[in-house]
Automatic annotation (TrEMBL):
InterPro entries in UniProt: NAD(P)-bd_dom_sf, SDR_DHRS6-like, SDR_fam, SDR_PhqE-like
Classification of source organism: Eukaryota, Fungi, Dikarya, Ascomycota, Pezizomycotina
Family statement drawn from the similarity comment of this UniProt entry: Belongs to the short-chain dehydrogenases/reductases (SDR) family.
Keywords attached to this entry: NADP, Oxidoreductase
Amino-acid biosynthesis in keyword set: no
Protein name, per record: Uncharacterized protein
GO molecular function, one term: oxidoreductase activity
Signal peptide range: none
């Protein structure tokens, strides 16, 4: 019997993490490295990429040659498809793609929303993974061992006032995942749907505002704690490893839907 049948499922595989310089993507990069994979991270600027690569290489010196990265601008509508293709060309043959990239959430009253605003609000979170899905199969090893994992959020299940743009964008990503799971089969396509997680997403808040958010979350979820990136990273690992899962959304939300 192979004593590493489960623990080294990702050994030797190549994982591209779009949005891997911080937050959930960075945690997924750490987890992938620890599970034996080679990791390529992408972010909006080369400076962010270089810093993240350096952090990973310092944390995992024995895996230094398994970490690299490339910048890719996903917010440019005119250049989006070309930028995605250029990234995939640089990355080479892949086994898994994780899309966790995000930009500042467009939280606006309905009366202020314009068509241009709505399109831009979905550029990084919806249109970018759409273009990744369009071209990914040419760069991925064939078969159900390979996977694409997208990222949404708890706003799908619990809408909030003024969150109509982020909410509808994430609902669209859920539909995109289901379509890609069929169109790209047997490559598997799934979603990680996290609730509130302590990442750089909240850096725009003051310390006091974030403290209130954390306290409110901890009082209103069964786990009694705000989610951490290393918690959510386990969901990305699972979806890469399980060749029997496609077309689903994994929720990692501290039990928030129970209360």
């Amino acid at each position: 019997m192979d004593a590493s049948k489960y623990t080294l499922k990702l050994r030797g595989q190549r994982v591209l993490i779009v949005g891997g310089s911080s937050g959930l993507g960075f945690a997924a990069a750490e987890a992938s490295i620890e599970n034996g994979a080679s990791v390529l991270i992408s972010s909006s600027s080369q400076q962010k990429v270089d810093k993240a690569v350096e952090r990973l290489q310092q944390a995992y010196p024995s895996a230094k040659d398994r970490v690299s990265g490339y910048a890719c601008n996903l917010s440019d509508q005119a250049g989006l498809e070309k930028n995605v293709v250029d990234l995939l060309e640089k990355a080479g043959t892949l086994d898994h793609i994780i899309h966790s990239a995000g930009d500042p959430l467009s939280i606006k009253p309905l009366a202020e929303i314009t068509i241009d605003m709505a399109i831009q609000a979905s550029m990084v979170r919806f249109y970018a993974p759409l273009m990744i899905g369009k071209h990914a199969a040419k760069y991925m090893n064939p078969g159900p061992r390979s996977s694409i994992t997208l990222t949404t959020g708890g706003i799908i299940d619990r809408p909030m006032p003024n969150w109509i743009l982020p909410g509808t964008t994430m609902c669209a990503v859920d539909g995109l995942m289901r379509g890609l799971a069929l169109d790209l089969a047997p490559i598997r396509v799934n979603i990680v749907n996290p609730g509130a997680v302590e990442t750089e997403l909240w850096n725009h808040m003051s310390k006091e505002e974030f403290k209130k958010l954390k306290e409110h979350t901890e009082k209103n979820v069964p786990t009694g704690r705000l989610g951490q990136p290393e918690d959510v990273a386990e969901a990305y690992l699972y979806l890469m490893k399980d060749m029997n899962v496609t077309g689903i959304s994994i929720r990692t939300q501290s039990g928030s839907l129970l209360k």
